[in-house]
Design goal:
The chain is of the alpha/beta class. Helix content is 43%, strand content 14%. It has an 8-stranded parallel barrel with strand order 1-2-3-4-5-6-7-8, surrounded by 6 helices. Helix 1 crosses helix 10 and helix 5 crosses helix 6. InterPro entries: IolE/XylAMocC-like, Xyl_isomerase-like_sf, Xyl_isomerase-like_TIM-brl.
Length: 270
């Protein structure tokens, strides 16, 4: 079966929230990933979650994930309880929008992996209340939880049947990992594959989110990424996720359209 194509709202971030939904549908995406900071900003101006859900339904868009849950990974005591309060609210909002997953981002520094696993299991149990299951994300620029192997270690300590990961070619490169690590996964362990490219310079250790470019415009072997996903039997979501300020200054509809074309050309030609 073919992949399903999704637009991460960060790719056209300056556009208003409801406009992003309309653009994603108009140019041919089947889903859109929404960010909680944008959702909360929309609500703060008098909008309602029902408005967002209605726009999604009217345009036939799924919301595979919302982004993101924070401060859950390495906290304890009162700071952990405070973090959980926000995680609950965000998972409740995700449920209202029909999202099955909420991305759970890691701590930036050194982490007690057993604690992270226990806290991740707690998040998953919280998500079971309303059917929104946090997906563990690794970030290539953080100190420890920066590879797929590190994310899987957290999953192993959590030992929860609904544990999943977010995979991302940029973060795999930035964290010094290998695309071949994808063979360690079962399809059911993948909540989402983000999709993006990155230039060969600056050096890997100096790259950050804003260096990402459209698929095929960088040096990553994305055909290999897709081939490995197909090899393990994954046919879920590919989501175009960029934070490129040059693209943010361009027409958002054109960026979304070209991004989908480039993503499909690689995914369907691999």
């Amino acid at each position: 079966m073919p992949f399903r194509y999704c637009l991460n709202a960060s790719t056209i971030r300056p556009a208003p929230l409801l406009e992003k939904i309309r653009i994603a549908a108009d140019v041919g995406y089947a889903g859109i990933e929404l960010w909680h900071d944008e959702i909360e900003a929309y609500l703060a101006t008098g909008g309602q979650l029902t408005d967002i859900r209605r726009a999604l339904d009217d345009h036939g868009l799924a919301v595979p994930t919302t982004i993101y849950l924070r401060n859950w990974c390495d906290t304890t005591g009162q700071s952990h309880e405070t973090a959980l309060d926000e995680c609950r609210r965000r998972m409740d909002d995700a449920a209202a929008l029909g999202a099955p997953h909420c991305i759970a981002s890691p701590a930036a520094g050194k982490v007690d992996v057993r604690l992270a696993g226990r806290n991740y299991r707690e998040l998953l149990d919280l998500g079971a209340r309303n059917g929104v299951f946090p997906a563990m994300e690794y970030l290539g620029f953080v100190e420890q939880l920066n590879t797929l192997e590190a994310a899987l270690e957290v999953l192993n300590w959590a030992n929860h049947p609904r544990g999943t990961v977010i995979i991302d070619p940029f973060h795999a490169f930035r964290g010094g990992g290998s695309f071949e690590s994808l063979t360690k996964l079962r399809p059911a362990q993948i909540a989402m594959s983000h999709f993006n490219d990155t230039p060969a310079t600056p050096p890997r250790e100096q790259q950050h989110d804003h260096h990402r470019v459209l698929p095929g415009d960088g040096h990553l072997d994305l055909k290999r990424w897709v081939a490995l996903l197909k090899q393990i039997g994954y046919d879920g979501w590919l989501s175009l996720e960029l934070f490129n300020e040059t693209l943010w200054r361009q027409n958002p509809r054109e960026v979304a359209k070209i991004g989908l074309e480039k993503m499909r050309a690689i995914a369907e030609g691999a």
